[in-house]
Model the fold of this input.
Amino acid sequence: METKLALFLSLLLVVALVLPDLAVGEKAGALVMHPKGVDPKMWFKFSEGSLRPQECAPRCTGRCSRTSFKKPCMFFCQKCCAKCLCVPPGTYGNKQLCPCYNNWKTKEGGPKCP
Done:
């Protein structure tokens, strides 16, 4: 009995620590998990088709700002943005906010978009 109680309390602690780091948003019936750093009320600004083509360069500049491979990062980021009209927030990750950006793959199956 004590083992079950300890396991339950451990699980409850893990959920309590992880859950506040996520926010939930919906778009067209799809459930999207957002990192804590993105305001849930503003997530639509990062969704697919939310940008105009002229907004791609500044967003990609921010996305590629911390890489040591700026030229290829900018090239592929702008190519992906032109197709998807979306660039995920931050310098890494958060691709779940832009499904087109996330799902575009190379011939080898790796991610095309940085």
